[in-house]
Design a protein that fits this description.
Strand 4, helix 7 and strand 5 form a beta-alpha-beta unit. The protein contains nine helices and seven strands. Bound molecules: S-adenosylmethionine.
Length: 226
């Protein structure tokens, strides 16, 4: 059955993966542009949000080419936080190829091809999960949030930032709306959310929301598997 967001774009997970096929340099430039003008956020903000949420065994869902993950890990080293065992998953083979190349020779980080809504991991096998800039790209968001809940150990935490419908000052809001509409047409974005809608999805699969904060046009969510 399709959820509301699948209906918005009608795109399947394979079409979304295909839309993510691009040159690594263009992916990074485009990402910076989207972060600044659609998310109204900064890299620093993301480092501070995702950096602390790394348990002994960590899962990075929709890791992309690992650009942000690499910066987050540098931030952790700078903060003298401990090294962790990390598994990254993504559904776009082209993105995963970039991540594999980036972290070649790092035994502490492995990658697997997987749909966020059907991950090939044992139940309760991770201490923490991060989902950076990706919840709003999932065609089956409820399925993905439910599977993240499943693979987390009881007490484990997930950090996720979710794109909200643009807000604030009209010119900036209109720029963000245009970028979002372009992203939906291109297939790299499924759609923005209302705060209550996305928090409701997290709660409906069993998560306890332990923190949520609007930052620019995003909602940063910290949730715990009870
Ligand atoms: C905007 S990118 C974010 C990548 C990375 N987390 C970052 O912050 O740089 C969104 C990612 O979600 C991935 N994605 C989309 N649908 C997915 C799905 N169903 N399962 C796993 N990954 C998916 C895309 O392939 C893409 O790499």
């Amino acid at each position: 059955m399709m959820n509301a967001h699948e209906k918005q774009t009608g795109k399947s997970r394979d079409e979304i993966a295909q839309a993510y096929k691009s040159e690594p340099w263009w992916y990074d430039v485009r990402g910076f542009f989207i972060l600044t003008f659609a998310y109204n956020s900064t890299l620093w903000e993301q480092l501070r949000f995702f950096g602390p949420n790394f348990g002994a065994r960590h899962l990075e869902v929709a890791c992309g080419t690992g650009t942000l993950l690499e910066l987050v890990l540098r931030w952790r080293t700078w903060k003298k936080l401990p090294a962790r065992q990390i598994v990254g998953v993504d559904y776009a083979e082209s993105m995963l190829a970039g991540a594999l190349h980036r972290f070649k020779g790092r035994p502490d980080i492995t990658f697997q091809h997987a749909d966020a809504a059907a991950m090939p991991f044992e139940t309760a096998s991770f201490d923490t999960v991060n989902v950076a800039n990706a919840v709003h790209c999932f065609p089956d968001v409820r399925g993905a949030v439910a599977d993240i809940f499943r693979v987390l150990k009881p007490g484990g935490t997930v950090a996720a930032n979710v794109l909200l419908h643009p807000r604030g000052f009209a010119p900036l809001r209109m720029i963000a709306e245009r970028i979002n509409a372009w992203g939906v047409r291109k297939g790299i974005l499924v759609g923005a959310y209302d705060q209550d809608e996305i928090l409701g999805i997290f709660r409906s699969v069993g998560f306890e929301i332990i923190g949520s904060r609007v930052s620019g046009n995003c909602l940063n969510i910290m949730a715990r598997r009870i």
